[in-house]
């Protein structure tokens, strides 16, 4: 049995999945983007430090977030961390907005 077509299909699916994971999160339209940046610096900064370099919560600098899967960070933002002071932000953010914030943080663009 020739497994070539199946193997090519699996490779194509893997490439497509990798491509989708690397797509940049779409920036929300103004004024929502400004609201999210204010939330990030004021609300997140209350625990993670106003400069996002750490405080009660861990730093949110690109160096501190390097190597951490974006999906895991998005889940933490949306669902919080039970048993810790990290609250769920799902009532205030969509998943796309959380993805955008994670992208900004990981790229150092949240200043």
TrEMBL record:
A Pfam family reported for this protein in Swiss-Prot or TrEMBL: Cytochrome_CBB3
> InterPro entries in the record, alphabetically?
Cyt_c-like_dom (IPR009056), Cyt_c-like_dom_sf (IPR036909)
- Keyword Heme on this protein? yes
Keyword rRNA-binding, does the record have it?
A: no
Q: Which UniProt keywords apply?
A: Heme, Iron, Metal-binding, Signal
The molecular function GO annotations come to: electron transfer activity; heme binding; metal ion binding
Q: What is this protein called?
A: Cytochrome c55X NirC
- State the organism named in the record: Aquitalea magnusonii
Traced from the root, the source organism's taxonomic lineage reads: Bacteria, Pseudomonadati, Pseudomonadota, Betaproteobacteria, Neisseriales
């Amino acid at each position: 049995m020739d497994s070539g077509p199946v193997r090519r299909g699996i490779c194509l699916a893997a490439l497509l999945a990798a491509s989708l994971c690397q797509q940049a999160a779409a920036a929300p339209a103004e004024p929502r983007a400004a609201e999210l940046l204010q939330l990030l610096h004021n609300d997140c900064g209350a625990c993670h430090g106003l400069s996002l370099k750490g405080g009660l919560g861990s730093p949110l600098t690109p160096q501190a977030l390097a190597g951490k899967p974006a999906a895991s960070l998005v889940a933490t933002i949306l669902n919080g961390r039970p048993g810790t002071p990290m609250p769920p932000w799902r009532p205030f953010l969509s998943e796309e907005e959380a993805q955008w914030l994670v992208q900004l943080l990981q790229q150092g663009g949240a200043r």
